[in-house]
Amino acid sequence: MIGGIEFGGTKCIVCVAKNPLDIFEIKEIPTSDPNSTFLEILSFFNNFKISSLGVGSFGPLVLDSESTDYGLLVAESKKGWNGVNIFSELSSVSSNIFIDTDVNAAALGEYHYGAGKLCENLVYVTVGTGIGVGVLLGGKPHIGNFHLEIGHMLIPNSDNFRGICAIHGNCWEGLASGPSMQSRWGIEATKLPEKHEAWQKEAELLAIGLVNIISNHSPDKIILGGGIMNQKHLFNKIRSNVDKIWNQYTQLGSLSELISEPGLGKNSGIIGSMCLTL
Ligand SMILES: [Zn+2]
């Protein structure tokens, strides 16, 4: 059996499986304080012999498997979790543990089993509570020196909106995440009707970020997931803004192909976590 954990800010999905598409048991555990959360996770895996465990986690965290700090969360992105080492907390579950960012894991899941098949250079963007981006180069997660933090890139802020990122204020996440929409329009994003001008603004902000990603990574495909992207009408709005900003500089091909929905729906993350063991 292999194991998978999708470590999120509000909940963790844990599962055991024969392979990433053949899940034997799966459970959702609320992410509370580290002690109670790990207690529940360990008790879930207690009844199974896990040959390898894949973990896709929120960060920022140390991904260098040679480092003694492998799996260490290094910022207070979730209250009480700074300094927690995910790798050591889970060491009793399996002797083979593979950790990556939640978004690299999701990209990997889509690459193996979803909308990103055969896309060697694949980008997965989640737009929800925050904005996170996973990048595969040659089918492998791109880590770099620490790991990518594309959600925190700076983009134009034409109306000087006070963004909501706790670190930078008006970075991409600060201007275009779900909480940012709520702050800008005074109402939860999911309650905004399709015709509301908020969605045109959101599409512009997301398109600016995507054009930067296209410029930097020349991806075969960009998959957009996360709560905000459940608004399916956003996809075409984003595509037409990307088209406008790119201004036919080079051929991007079909934008419906380039910018697409996840093939695995909400399961990219947990399936992708298990793909880390492959
Ligand atoms: Zn930021």
Furnish the topology, listing elements before pairings:
Blueprint: E1 2-7, E2 11-19, E3 22-30, H1 34-45, E4 52-57, H2 86-89, E5 97-101, H3 102-113, E6 122-127, E7 131-137, E8 140-141, H4 172-176, H5 178-185, H6 197-217, E9 221-225, H7 233-246, H8 255-258, E10 259-260, H9 268-275
Parallel strand pairs: 1-4, 4-5, 6-9, 9-10
Antiparallel strand pairs: 1-2, 2-3, 6-7, 7-8
Helix pairs in contact: 3-9, 6-7
Task: Give descriptors for this structure.
binds zinc ion, 278 residues, 21% strand, Nucleotidyltransferase, domain 5, five-stranded mixed sheet, single chain, alpha/beta
General description of the model:
- The protein is α/β, with parallel strands linked by helices.
- The protein has helices spanning 34-45, 86-89, 102-113, 172-176, 178-185, 197-217, 233-246, 255-258, 268-275, and strands at residues 2-7, 11-19, 22-30, 52-57, 97-101, 122-127, 131-137, 140-141, 221-225, 259-260.
- Strands 3-2-1-4-5 form a five-stranded mixed β-sheet, with helices on both faces. A five-stranded mixed β-sheet has the order 8-7-6-9-10, sandwiched between helices.
- The chain has two domains: 2-102, Nucleotidyltransferase, domain 5 (2-Layer Sandwich); 115-262, Nucleotidyltransferase, domain 5.
- Helix 3 crosses helix 9 and helix 6 packs across helix 7.
- Helices cover 32% and strands 21% of the residues.
- Strand 7 (131-137) and strand 8 (140-141) form a beta hairpin.
- Bound molecules: zinc ion (ZN).
- Zinc ion (ZN) binds next to helix 4.
- Zinc ion (ZN) is lined by residues 152, 165, 167-168, 171, 173-174.
